[in-house]
Amino acid sequence: MLDNDVADPAVTEPRRGAPNLADLPVALEDVEHAASLLEGVIERTPVAHSRALSRMLGSEVWVKAENLQRSGSFKVRGAYNRMAQLTDEEKARGVVAASAGNHAQGVALAARRLGIQATIYMPLGAALPKVAATQDHGAEVVLHGSKVDEALAEARRVAEETGKVFVHPFDHPDIIAGQGTLGLEILDQVPNVDTVLTGVGGGGLLAGLAVALKAREAQGGRPVRVIGVQAENAAAYPPSLAGDALVSLEKVSTIADGIAVGQPGQLPFQIIKELADDVVTVSEDRLAESLIFMLERNKLVVEPAGVVGVAALLDGRLKETYGDLGATVVVLSGGNVDPMLMLKVIQRGLAAAGRYMTVKMMLVDRPGELTHISSIISRLDANVTGVDHTRIGGSLAMGDVSITIDMETKGHEHSRQVLDALEAEGYRPVVVH
């Protein structure tokens, strides 16, 4: 777990200067109160030193394994803190929420602990394991709409109609304060921390972390750089921060469904624009590659939304921007991944890392042609895992064959060697993925 014997690296000053904590909707006292309410309810998740990431970054890196939290993500922190502070009359009315999975499970777990009836609206495409886990905690699950936003609108409508308390996934002070308890744990577990990276959807977690870390800094504690990371196909924060106004994305499409939010939350945005040092983006391929990296190198199952911080480190642009990040903690925010999605992500991640390649070629339809191609690939120690060929198609001339070959390779350089060898023999392979 935590390696306390590492040297304290040189501290680089946060880019934004002294934090402005005045007039924000959440204060350090709120986070500390949330921590007291959560004692005995949540796990104090471990912090693990990552040698692989440390060697790659050139400074010490730890991962805060919130994927091992009860309900599988950090969301239970905010949900429980919000619901524990309801009045008896509000608790008797019950709660309603909407989520694609993690907030749903957090609310369901908190409701069971507090004896509150919970109704959770989830989109029709929600992963079956997440639906089942939410139901297992005792919540009623209603599938509605094709997107989280539609489920959210329906949950709001039902709350207004029935009088049930609506538990927002990120846009409420108690939710933000609950998520901020992660920051207090990080300061205790890695006292020499210089940089904290976390994923961002609506912004509740980043906002809570920023309050905890920057407020402790203002009290004379260690300066800590706080950076949020979004999937580039679901990145509403960079344009919102640049324009100092909430931007709503027309389309959100990412494998990181846990942070697939089209518009920042009003309260998180207010905090993040004042306290966070940066919000950066990462590609889908880098997300997939990072999930595999955590599986292979740290032996941790993390959902795509939970590895965005790792993806930002693997991408390398943070180091180019900030130089030495110092002692860095990456929050692995959740581990609730659908096995079917995992299969797709692993394949994409292997392709992004140059370890899986699919090529398409046109061949002359004659005996021995496929054997010849197979021998070229075999000679270079690549492994064919699938072959598909067809003689029929509008783009095929008489006597031509279209062939698609799936193969395992050993990296980008090895993949290039295979392609070069095929081209040297007169073939024209086109990489599909």
UniProtKB/TrEMBL annotation:
Chain ranges of the ACT domain: 358-433
CDD domains: ACT_ThrD-II-like (cd04886), Thr-dehyd (cd01562)
Pfam families in alphabetical order: PALP (PF00291)
Keywords, sorted A to Z: Lyase, Pyridoxal phosphate
Single biological process term from Gene Ontology: L-serine catabolic process
Record field: catalytic activity: L-threonine = 2-oxobutanoate + NH4(+)
Enzyme Commission number: 4.3.1.19
Residues spanning the signal sequence: none
Cofactor or coenzyme needed: pyridoxal 5'-phosphate
Keyword Cell membrane annotated: no
GO molecular function: L-serine ammonia-lyase activity; threonine deaminase activity
InterPro entries noted in UniProt: ACT-like_dom_sf, ACT_dom, ACT_ThrD-II-like, Ser/Thr_Dehydratase, Thr_deHydtase_catblc, TrpB-like_PALP, TrpB-like_PALP_sf
Protein's job: Catalyzes the anaerobic formation of alpha-ketobutyrate and ammonia from threonine in a two-step reaction. The first step involved a dehydration of threonine and a production of enamine intermediates (aminocrotonate), which tautomerizes to its imine form (iminobutyrate). Both intermediates are unstable and short-lived. The second step is the nonenzymatic hydrolysis of the enamine/imine intermediates to form 2-ketobutyrate and free ammonia. In the low water environment of the cell, the second step is accelerated by RidA.
Family, per entry: Belongs to the serine/threonine dehydratase family.
Protein's name according to its UniProt entry: threonine ammonia-lyase
